[in-house]
Structures are given as C-alpha cells and as structure tokens.
Amino acid sequence: MHITQLNRECLLHIFSFLDKNSRKNLAKTCHKLLEVFQDPLLWPLLNFHSPVELKKDNFLLGPALKHLSICWYSQIVKVCNTEDWMKNSFQKDFCKRHENIVSDFLLDVCNRCPNLLSLTLSGCGHVTDDCILQLLKNCPNLKSLKLENCVRITDHTLKAVTLHGASLQMLHVDFCRNVTQAGLERVREMCPSVMLRAERSANMIPDSKPEKKLMLEKASRKWVQL
Q1: Within this chain, do residues 98 and 77 fall inside the same structural domain, yes or no?
Q2: Which among 39, 70, 107, 126 would be 20 to 30 A from 145, CA to CA?
Q3: How many CA atoms lie within 13 Å of 74's alpha carbon, on the beta-carbon side?
Q4: Which DSSP letter does residue 59 get?
Q5: How far apart are CA 213 and CA 123, in angstroms?
Q6: What proportions of the chain, in percent to the nearest 5, are helix, strand and coil?
Q7: Widest pairwise Cα distance in the chain
Q8: Tens of pLDDT, residue by residue, the chain (226 residues)
Q9: CATH number assigned to the domain comprising residue 115
Q10: pTM of the entire structure?
C-alpha cells in the first residue's frame, strides 16, 4: 500500500511525528502530500531555536497555531543583549542585520494566529514592548506568556498585561533587566490571579545612558579616594 492511498487523517498523523524540514521534504514528493503539509491542523505547535529558522518556508502560520516558542541559546545572544551604547561598530552591524526578524515574525503571528494560547521567548534581545502589546491585543486567548533574557522588555509590557491580558494565567519575565519591582507589584495588585515569576529581573542592573554610567563611575572613584 502506497502512502498516498492513506486517508487525510492518517497522513496528518504521520506528518505530526516529523520535524519541520522532514515535513517539507515529504511534501515535495506529490501534490497530495503538499496539501497535507498545508493543512492548518498540522501546525498547532511551533518551536524555533534561532531567528534564521523564522525565515524558512518549512512551516505554516495559521489560526490553528496554539503554542509558539522561540528560544535562542547562543553566544550571539550576549551581543544582542548588550546595551547599544556599549557595542562596537562590528557588533552594531551584526545586530542590525537580524534586529527585526523576531519582531516582524511576531507581528505576522498577530495577523494570522488569533487563537494563540502560549508564547515563550528566550534570548530574543530585540523584541520590544510594542510588539508584545500588539500580540496581547490580537491574541485575546493568550494564557501563558514567558519572556526570558529579553533585554528590551520593560514595565510597559507589564502595563500592557494589566490592560489587555484578560485571559492570561501565567507570566514569566525572567532575567529581563529593565523590568522593575514597581512594575511587578502593579501586576500583582491588578492581576492577582496571574501566576507571576520574575527570576532575577528586578534585581539586575538596568540599562543606563552613558552620562549616568559616567556619573556612577565618578561617584565610585570619589568614594575610593575618601
């Protein structure tokens, strides 16, 4: 019996065991399998391990997407999470080449995936508060939002949660150094039912402008002299 003789349900089940690349390669063999690959029901879950994967054509975004994860674990993440004014010209050029990849992808998710239930972002140093705000507005069923080591996430995201996260049950903002204790307390006060976790976030040194950094260094030298 040839695989193409199986019904649609069986083919979807077989495809569900394959990774994105394997699904795409199998879809290239015939029109029937391509139709299975393009079935939104095959794509309720998407996991990505680098921004480069977001630009491939081996997956489908659609209303069936319920769970999305973009977790980037790499030495490059350290460069992206460095304060802009501390980066050298090479680092700035490197970051500029992929700065909007994740944000643009998430805006696409806003438009195509209104039924999203959970989003996990780790090491996505260029994702902004505005991007998360748009996602909360366009995905009203979002129940879980986990942000880790996302340096541009600030109290504005926490405020957006209190305004537009009506369905949110779990919020993680771990190692997000520009989140403050005041912002966390606001979420706890206004959204008491949300399971909030902020490992190290409010205790980390937030971004500071060069002028502020210089003032701190001068104060430190003066203290040593005394």
Answers
A1: yes
A2: 39
A3: 13
A4: S
A5: 24
A6: 50, 10, 40
A7: 86
A8: 688 889 999 999 999 999 999 999 999 999 999 999 999 999 999 999 988 899 999 999 999 999 999 998 765 556 566 666 566 776 666 666 677 899 999 999 999 999 999 999 998 888 999 999 999 999 999 999 999 999 999 999 999 999 999 999 999 999 999 999 999 999 999 999 999 999 999 887 787 655 444 544 554 554 445 4
A9: 3.80.10
A10: 0.84
**6: CATH:** 1.20.1280
Nearest CA to 69 among 53, 55, 52, 49? 49
Q: Is 178 exposed, middle or buried (0-12, 13-18, 19+ CB in 10 A)?
A: buried
Pairing state between β 67-71 and 118-122: parallel
Token pair recorded at residue 66: 């319920």
